[in-house]
Amino acid sequence: MNKNNENLKEILSGFYPEAEAAKVEQDILAGDKLLADNPTPKPDTELINRIKSRINVELAQRQRRRAFRYVRATVTAAAAVLIIGVTLFMIQPEQPQEQPSVAAMTSDIPQQIWESEDLMNDDVTLAMLAADIDAVEDEVFALRFDSGSGETINLDEVEIEFVDIGDDFWKG
Amino acid sequence: MGKVQSRDLEIIISGCKKKDAASFSRLVDAYSTRLYGYFYRLCGDKNVSDDLLAELFVKLLEKIDYFRGGNFDGWLFTVASNIWHDRLRALQRDDKALQGLREELELSAKQNRMSGQEMRMIDRLGKQLGTLDEESRELIMLRFYSEMSFKEIAESRKMPIGTVLSKVHRAMAKLRELME
Questions:
Q1: Of the partner residues B123, B148, B172, the one whose CB lies closest to the CB of residue A4
Q2: pLDDT for A22-33, tens place per residue?
Q3: pTM score above 0.80
């Protein structure tokens, strides 16, 4: 085995006849010796130091660039998350809300009154007004059929009062 | 520094991949002499060899990540060979540019031709190496400095081993004859 970690004789025998292989081997080994006997100059210590310091500078620069890239990537990612979050918040569909009916929206009467299942309990004023109307109606009814109370009541006045109460009711 | 032991080399390479300055420093110590000899024998110029060696180690800062195991010396000298070929191409471009300039100035080719090899070969062997064709010279240098086997050289250069053997043999025989 030579320094090239190979058996030259064996390799050559695969390509040349035996006699020629020996000659080829001899030429190659003589060439190797020629090169070994004529060494090249060695690199200067100054060159080696210069190369090492350049490597150090390059490594430091790369480290700085890597740190900068890391910070930039982090900031970009955070900004992206923020932008996506804000965008999603802005464009998200509004929660479906129960729209009040047109009548409820345009009326002075509060919405809960329109939607109430039990007016008497939900609106005391309305309940009192309704009671008044009922009372007036009873009175009108009694007068019409002459219930025999003996009191003289002006029917027109009662009717006017009835109309007023009705108006007040619709005015709210 | 002589040839490093394989275990040490593994540690150095691993350190280099982690971009450790001390590991690169050890790599420079371990390989600079052989690589410098390789470049010097190819170009025959000390300044160019200095440049090529520095360029190689700076490129290794990146390239080391691509080393996936195997024969590191072979891999390293293949990188060195690529750097040399890049330089050769650049020199050829410069030569063309210089040639055009020379024609303009009507200066004699003898005076001005920066015939690389003649100018650069400063020792006798270097001069004789300059007479060999580029490929054969490089194969000899690769074999001598990288210490790769013929088989490894053939694989690295994507050439049949028989062709490598034949080229190296012819070049060595010629060199021997010239030097006698």
A1: B148
A2: 999 999 998 989
A3: no
